[in-house]
Amino acid sequence: METETVLNKYRVSYYSCAKCGLLQTEEPYWLDESYNDPIAMTDTGLVQRNISLARKLSSALYFGLDIKGRCLDIAGGYGLLVRLMRDFGFDFYWEDKYCSNILARGFEVTKPENGFEAITAFEVLEHIQDPVVFVKEAMEKYGTRTLIFSTQVYDEGPPPARDWWYYSFETGQHISFYTNKTLNCIADKLGLNFFSAGGLHFFTEKKIKPLQFVMLREKIALLLSLYIRWRKGTRVLDDHYLMVNKLKS
Q1: Residue spans of alpha helices (H) in the chain
Q2: What CATH number should be reported for the domain holding residue 121?
């Protein structure tokens, strides 16, 4: 694949790195137009994806990484994941330059702030032109060395055929595509460990033990997330009173 029509009108070139497998568009001059609506109307899996991610993420944080402190969801969209994670008892916060926070109001982070044990970025890296810089700056900005993220990887070798749904030519928002080798190269450049399990990817300084992440399988994560919510205690009511007090002040 060399060129393709993006946004039904722009002929765009795609380039593949022979060394790491990163597949990217040319300089994405059309992005302002693509982000007139930050949540693409084609993203019909948004709700189900976030429900599944919240279950797996809860298990990964609680059992795999032993993270108990504050976490931040960058490019958090409408705030659905943050609300779900707070419902599971985690101290999660929201950040997004382009989208309105609808479901996690009151838990925004609007400036650089240290003290986060981990940051998450789900369905974000495919929108990023320079992933190394993006990850490095995000970690420095929020004082963490752990990023948990999702992006659809493709097998090493030639790029996927034109009919691969993840290209998202119609929206023009996806500009970078990765293999596991690509993600390993990014981790190496940043001095981090890389690991994947259950559709989640991890860049972290922590030592990863693969057996700890068996629980990221869908059915296991569902059961464990219920246990975690019981064990940690949901923040639903506490957050309600916190927002009531904010409105009174």
Answers
A1: 31-34, 46-59, 80-87, 131-142, 180-190, 218-232, 236-248
A2: 3.40.50.150
Edge-first strand order for the sheet with 176-177 is 3-6, 10-16, 23-25, 176-177
The residue among 36 and 108 whose pLDDT is bigger is 108
Find the domain containing 59 and state its range: 3-248
- The pLDDT of residue 195 is 93
Q: pTM to 2 decimals?
A: 0.94
| Mean pLDDT of all residues in 168-172 | 95
CA nearest neighbour of 77 among 46, 41, 110, 32 = 46
What's the pLDDT score for residue 143? Answer: 96
What angle (nearest 5°) sits at the alpha carbon of residue 193, between those of residues 187 and 197? 100
Amino acid 99 reads C
Name beta bridge partners: 204.
146, 193
Domain count of the fold of the chain = 1
